[in-house]
Design brief:
The protein is 37% helix and 23% strand. With 245 residues, the chain is α+β, with helices and mostly antiparallel strands. The structure holds zinc ion. The site of zinc ion has 8 residues, from helix 4.
């Protein structure tokens, strides 16, 4: 039995037996982990309120060989989000991001970029709840990019030509093609949408959200449709609950 320590973001929890919980979290050094917190539903317990969803904790856990569930030993709150528990749309947005992390992160595979990006998005939405929609789009773009599902926005996947101002087309294999290579078939991706996607690739979540305030409703709608479409294709089903924008 080995003992580990890592930062982790609580994503979801389920009750187990009378006093325990199964907790799903994204950790910095071990990726997505599922663990049992024994006795955490007793009035007096060593976990306190640290296992509430979206709390950032320092986690110490045991791992047994060949067991997917780890055992939580000790937790320490690094950042709680109790102050947000009355903002329903924010909580829906957080739950949605949590769902995507669970859907897209392979268990026990550390991905420091994904962890840092997720923390930055939770932080940005907490700081400026009115930017939630833009933060969710940013989050979707980056989850897709980091897991290798975001198409190359600069060149045609077939003829390698650099895109100019033209409309491009999303092929069934989720690559982006020029008009000639796609015969104009597939989901249209306009120049404006490519530019908006590329700002997401370049900026931090707060900077992206700030810029998004000046972007047309049409382009935002196109981005929401595109990310929704790609996520649905990758998961082979619709995302769980996506907050209305
Ligand atoms: Zn082409």
């Amino acid at each position: 039995m080995a003992l580990f320590e890592t930062e982790a973001l609580i994503l979801r929890s389920y009750n187990l037996a009378e006093a325990d919980k199964i907790v799903v979290c994204l950790s910095r050094s071990a990726g997505l982990i599922r663990g049992v917190a024994k006795g955490c539903r007793k009035l007096k317990n060593r976990f306190g309120a640290a296992l509430e969803p979206f709390t950032l904790i320092n986690l110490t856990y045991y791992e047994k060989e060949n067991q997917e569930l780890v055992s939580f030993r000790q937790v320490e709150i690094l950042k709680s989000r109790f102050n947000l528990s009355t903002n329903a749309s924010l909580l829906t947005g957080f739950a949605y991001m949590g769902d995507l992390l669970i859907d897209f992160s392979p268990p026990h595979q550390a991905n420091d970029n994904l962890f840092r990006m997720a923390l930055a998005c939770f932080e940005a939405a907490s700081e400026t709840p009115s930017d939630l929609d833009a933060v969710l789009r940013y989050f979707e773009v980056w989850v897709l990019k980091l897991e290798g599902f975001l198409p190359d926005l600069r060149t045609c996947a077939n003829c390698q030509r650099t895109f100019a101002d033209e409309v491009t087309y999303l092929a069934p294999d989720l690559s982006l093609r020029c008009f000639d290579c796609s015969n104009g078939r597939g989901g249209a991706v306009t120049k404006g949408l490519r530019a908006h996607l590329r700002t997401a690739e370049k900026l931090s979540p707060p900077k992206f959200a700030e810029g998004a305030r000046e972007v047309s409703k049409e382009t935002k709608r196109e981005m929401a449709e595109l990310t929704f479409h790609i996520i649905g294709r990758v998961l082979e089903r619709m995302p769980r609950v996506r907050p209305a924008s």
